[in-house]
UniProtKB/TrEMBL annotation:
Catalytic activity, as annotated: ATP + protein L-histidine = ADP + protein N-phospho-L-histidine
SMART domains: HATPase_c, HisKA
GO CC terms in record: membrane
Keywords associated with the record: Kinase, Membrane, Phosphoprotein, Transferase, Transmembrane, Transmembrane helix
Enzyme Commission number(s) from the entry: 2.7.13.3
Protein name: histidine kinase
Pfam families attached to this UniProt entry: HATPase_c, HisKA
Length: 334
């Protein structure tokens, strides 16, 4: 019995046994039930019933009922606060328990939890600020490097320019990831339509697909809207499409599927990734998309973390298809 009500019931049971035994001894001593001339048996039973069982039973019934009502009331308050905490967790915002929301005996616990959430929120704000500052600081030397490449022969500058472009994209993704994890993310989120987002990103990457000798198309399968930072989700989807264009055989088709539900899948004709392989690529410290062309980055790892900050996940489409999918929780009806 780990519940408060169970412990209360066990305590009342022990108290009733001990109290009943004490009262029985007192009645036996008071009325000389064990003396040389004890009263008749029927009188003994009546005395114990009237002076022990009935009063003690009424007391236990009233006390137990009152205690159970108090426990149920506190349990209801805890469930209400738990619901508020879950809602705050879904919206990625900190939560402070009101000081008068729970009994005074729980104040040390609520104060400790409030202090913890305050420190976590402050840490998240510092992380976002650091990522933003780092991104801005990195953009300047990358721009200077890109300009310096103009002095090199075109054939030498091309691969270096591609690496700088990949680094710039990674910096942008890190900044979007930091914004996705910020405490005030809920206020900045909007309703995202998977079909519209997929068509926009495919239109952006269509020239690159043609240049790479691949076909890029969009399919809609009863998509459902979800809430999030659209540019962060767009960056994750863009990473999946770019990886698919590199992995797909030349002349094959890469399909971006919106739906079913709040899902965005990128299906290619490559070998695909098993769940174990995808987990390894998503692990911290693993380069997620070292491609044949030499580009390197943290693409899949960042895409997975952006999805996670939206309550979603990056999963493999196997065994049904070869590809990856971003799954998000559908938006609640207004």
């Amino acid at each position: 019995m780990n519940s408060i009500a169970g412990r209360l019931l066990r305590g009342l049971l022990i108290s009733s046994l001990v109290g009943g035994a004490v009262l029985t001894i007192m009645v036996i001593y008071e009325y000389g039930l064990l003396s040389a001339n004890p009263p008749p048996l029927w009188k003994t039973v009546r005395e114990i019933t009237e002076h022990v069982l009935v009063p003690f039973g009424v007391f236990l019934l009233l006390f137990g009922t009152g205690a159970l009502l108090v426990v149920r009331r506190v349990e209801g308050q805890l469930k209400g606060i738990a619901g508020d905490v879950r809602q705050a967790a879904q919206e990625l915002r900190s939560y402070q328990t009101p000081p008068d929301a729970l009994p005074r005996e729980l104040t040390p616990f609520t104060e400790a939890v409030n202090e913890l959430t305050s420190r976590l929120a402050a840490h998240a704000r510092r992380q976002e600020a650091f990522a933003a500052d780092a991104a801005h600081e990195l953009r300047t030397p990358l721009s200077i490097l890109a300009l310096s490449l103009d002095k090199l022969p075109a054939e030498d500058a091309a691969p270096l320019r591609a690496q700088i472009r990949a680094l710039s994209d990674m910096v942008d993704q890190l900044l979007l990831l930091a914004r996705s994890n910020a405490p005030d993310t809920a206020q900045r989120r909007s309703l995202i339509e998977p079909d519209a987002l997929a068509r926009r990103i495919v239109a952006e990457l269509a020239p690159a697909a043609i240049q790479a000798g691949r076909e890029l198309s969009v399919e809609s399968d009863n998509p459902a809207p979800f809430r999030g930072l659209e540019e962060a989700v767009a960056a994750s989807l863009r990473t999946l499409i770019v990886n698919a264009l590199r992995a797909a055989p030349e002349g094959s088709e890469v399909i971006v599927r919106a739906g079913p539900g709040a899902n965005l899948a990128v299906i290619d004709g490559g070998q695909g990734l098993t769940p174990d392989e995808l987990d390894k690529l998503k692990a911290r410290g693993i380069r997620a998309d070292r491609a044949p062309g030499g580009e390197a980055g943290l693409g899949l790892a960042i895409a997975d973390r952006i999805a996670d900050s939206h309550g979603g996940e990056l999963v493999t489409c196997q065994p049904a298809y070869s590809g990856l999918a971003l799954r998000f929780p559908a938006a609640r009806p207004a």
